[in-house]
């Protein structure tokens, strides 16, 4: 993880969590609208993929918004994040739920402290954006997923109407105006498919959020 991004998630957890409810930067409402647009598109994908009693892990769980949604669906959830502050926010958000149904783990996405083939569904929303190479993290997501299990991830789209915010001057504006760290990874449609096949996934669905982010739903290949 890049030092600037590492510092951001350790020190600005409350700032980012605030985007979901009020927006804590000059243009925070813009960020909040995007986060909720992404959430609305993910809900039906989760509903089609997650069944009551499924073991689901959310890698890069942040402050726990998706964990709570998965608990409402009856899943047995594990939230993973390397930011202790994000995990503290997740713990507070889930405090009213049965503690037998959820657990939190501090771990790096590229070296997960989780057993092989443990989960029915693996989710990573807003994680791959901040990795210079998403392959090691995807390999770990593949490792902990059961054969024929479901992967649901997001990854920035290329091209994008917001491409300027991914350039060097754009990254400065992201931090100053939006209170966000730089995005390190963006891929085309063909690159999404190539990346998933290389790691051992078969893409089932591919859609975009506001033409700037891919939502990928894929299955772990039975032959891997």
Short description:
The chain has 224 residues and is of the alpha/beta class.
Q: Please describe the biggest sheet, giving its number of strands, its sense, and whether it closes into a barrel.
A: 7 strands, mixed
Write down the overall geometry.
globular
Mean pLDDT: 91
Helical element count? 8
Provide the CATH superfamily.
Answer: Vaccinia Virus protein VP39
Top-tier CATH class:
Alpha Beta
How many discrete domains? 1
The helix/strand series, from N terminus to C terminus, equals: HHHEHEHEEHEHHEE
- Report how far apart the termini are: 27 Å
Tell me what the CATH architecture is: 3-Layer(aba) Sandwich
How much of the residues is beta strand, in percent? 15-25%
Radius of gyration: 16 Å
CATH fold annotation: Rossmann fold
List keywords for this structure.
single chain; 224 residues; alpha/beta; 7 strands
Description:
The protein is of the alpha/beta class and 224 residues long. The chain has one domain: Vaccinia Virus protein VP39 (Rossmann fold). It has eight helices and seven strands. The protein has helices spanning 3-11, 13-19, 28-49, 65-72, 84-93, 135-144, 168-178, 189-199; strands spanning 55-59, 76-81, 102-106, 119-124, 145-156, 201-209, 213-220. Strands 3-2-1-4-5-7-6 form a seven-stranded mixed β-sheet, with helices on both faces. A hairpin with a 3-residue loop joins strand 6 (201-209) and strand 7 (213-220). It starts with a helix and ends with a strand.
């Amino acid at each position: 993880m890049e030092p600037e991004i590492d510092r951001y998630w350790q020190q600005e957890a409350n700032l980012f969590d605030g985007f979901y409810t009020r927006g804590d930067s000059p243009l925070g409402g813009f960020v909040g609208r995007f986060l909720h647009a992404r959430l609305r598109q993910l809900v039906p994908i989760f509903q089609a993929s997650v069944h009551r009693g499924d073991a689901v892990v959310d890698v890069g769980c942040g402050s726990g918004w998706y964990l709570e949604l998965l608990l409402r669906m009856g899943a047995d959830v594990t939230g993973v994040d390397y930011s202790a502050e994000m995990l503290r926010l997740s713990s507070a958000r889930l405090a009213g739920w049965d503690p037998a149904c959820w657990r939190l783990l501090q771990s790096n996405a590229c070296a997960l402290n989780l057993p092989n083939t443990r989960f029915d569904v693996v989710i990573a929303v807003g994680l791959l954006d901040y990795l210079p190479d998403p392959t090691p993290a995807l390999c770990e997501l593949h490792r902990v997923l059961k054969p024929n299990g479901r992967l649901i991830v997001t990854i920035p789209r290329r091209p994008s109407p917001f491409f300027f915010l991914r350039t060097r001057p754009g990254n400065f504006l992201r931090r100053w105006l939006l209170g966000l760290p730089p995005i390190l990874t963006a891929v085309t449609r063909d690159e999404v498919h190539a990346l998933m096949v290389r790691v051992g996934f078969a893409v089932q669905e591919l859609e975009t959020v506001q033409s700037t982010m891919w939502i990928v739903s894929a299955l772990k290949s039975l032959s891997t």
